[in-house]
Amino acid sequence: MPKYLLLKHYRGAPAAVNDIPMEQWAPEEITAHVNYMRDFATRLVETGEFVGEQALAPEGTFVRYDGEGKPPITDGPFAETKDLIAGFMIIDVDCYERALELAGELSAAPGAGGKPIHEWLELRPLWGEPLVITE
User: Fold this and answer.
1) 125: helix, coil or strand?
2) Biggest alpha carbon distance in the chain?
């Protein structure tokens, strides 16, 4: 079965329909969103389609090898993933169409006012995985 990465973006994707930043949500709206994500993952565990997921902290640093000694560390001026990616989920599904279906469902997680976010998610096959299209 092919595996896909679902990426949740802070920015860089087209704006969501319910485009109110999470820092402006009420605590109960954040709880509802997190619960939706957990329930979604639990259902995928039950169907055998769940591989892993993780929300990402906003902190991050670029590091590179620069010869002997301490590696250089910088906080920019790059477009950094800490500014772009909020989290990810890896799924293991029968086909591309199923991955699209699940991405669409995950996009409906509730946001401000309890309304679905309708956020754009990036769907990417994992390297070396077969692309199975059933159409």
Assistant:
1) strand
2) 54
Instruction: State pLDDT tens for residues 62-84.
Output: 676 777 777 776 666 555 566 66
Q: How far apart are CA 104 and CA 98, in angstroms?
A: 10
| Cα–Cα dist 31/33, whole Å | 5
CA dist 15 → 19, 40, 90, 106 (Å): 6, 22, 23, 16
CA 114/CA 80 separation, integer angstroms: 30
11-22 pLDDT, tens digit per residue, is: 666 777 888 888
Residue 116 CA to residue 75 CA, distance in Å, equals 33
